[in-house]
Amino acid sequence: MRGANRGELVLFTSALIWLFLSCVFQQVRGIELVFPRFAAFWLTFGRVDAAAEVSFLYGWGCNIAFVAGFRVCNVPPLQGIALLAFFWNLAIAVGVFLILSGQVILMPLLPAALNFFLLLIALFFCFPILQTCWKNQQFPTLAQRWFVGGAILFPWLLFTAGTLLRPGVLRGAARLPVEAWFHEGFLWLWLGGAALGFAYYLVKKILNSPLREEQIAPAGFWAFYGVNFWAALRTTAGGALPAWISAAGTSANLLLWIPLVVIWKNLCDTPKRFSISLKSNPALRFTILGAHLFILSALQGIVLYSKTGGAFLQFTDFVTSQAFLMRYGFLTSIFCAVIYYFVPRLLFRQWPRERAIFWHFHLHRAGLAIVALSLAIAGIVQGILLNNPSLPFSASIQAAFPWRCLADVGWGIFFAAQIIFLRHSLRLLHLSNQEH
Question: In the chain, how many domains are there?
Fold first, then answer.
């Protein structure tokens, strides 16, 4: 096996491990939300929540985004990818350990030294993507543009936030818009852009046909980035900031329907014109599921961060439902599709067990539905009770208890799906190693 391919496999394997750890931390977090004393002697709620966030964003998300960018943008074989992947994941592991040991708090960056180290490695990962697309005589394809945008923005996000959020640079409320911009930009513009870029790539590649509304797809790309730059400020509503900042975020949030319509037309409607069986193509199956969940989570966010919705739902489990649907619904579904599509092509082997794919998909989908619906209903119930001044705060907690328990059951189902996925992927790697 070539060294470049081995480096990409290291990224894929590392991503799977971080997905597993993220699910473990999230499962513990969900249990502690219902039973606060569970593992609270060390794994307190705040530590587990932060560890899950780092494991997901930097571990699962970034590893997949890097290797998907290499593949979609046709980056030529590079030496040293495995070494870069090792140092990237080592830095994340150190960050998670520091969080779990209580030495640092994720707000929202890792410590300055680790952040600078990750920035250097990110530059080494992102530069080949930009260089390849720049040297290409043809204009980048639509799918490649999403990765080019992410490769430009991701190092900038790390550098700017790392500079402005250092101790002593900004104080008090002045940090809030920078933190919101970094976190939302990381999630939507970097990881979300990479996921949408792969979705465009795969739908067009497998169907071998133009998108339904391909002529307006570039407009959707620019609208997505332009609107989300300002929509990142929507999470500051109600904070101790000038009114125009939260108003700009709320207004941009309402404009998100423009790129949503374009993306829905191209990613969700295009496959409907073909009779291709999704059962025979797990990558396309997970991609279409992820595209639908992207639309759903974005609409949920529009409702949540509108002026009326924010006043009603901002401090409820509805926020957790929307975050879960974005991370583990949209992003994880499409990142699973990345593995289902590229890993067999790297190893020149088919997936060994179709039954494992069947159970992974259906348990994945069932777990997502149970968790998202349970937390959304809990949030609505909490919002109703919190806005009743005659009731104590504890009434909303008690009313949400059964829905949180149901969400924990859904988390268990979703976790079981990812264990099946991890075991199936490791089995494929093991069979490939036996041949070599």
Answer: 1
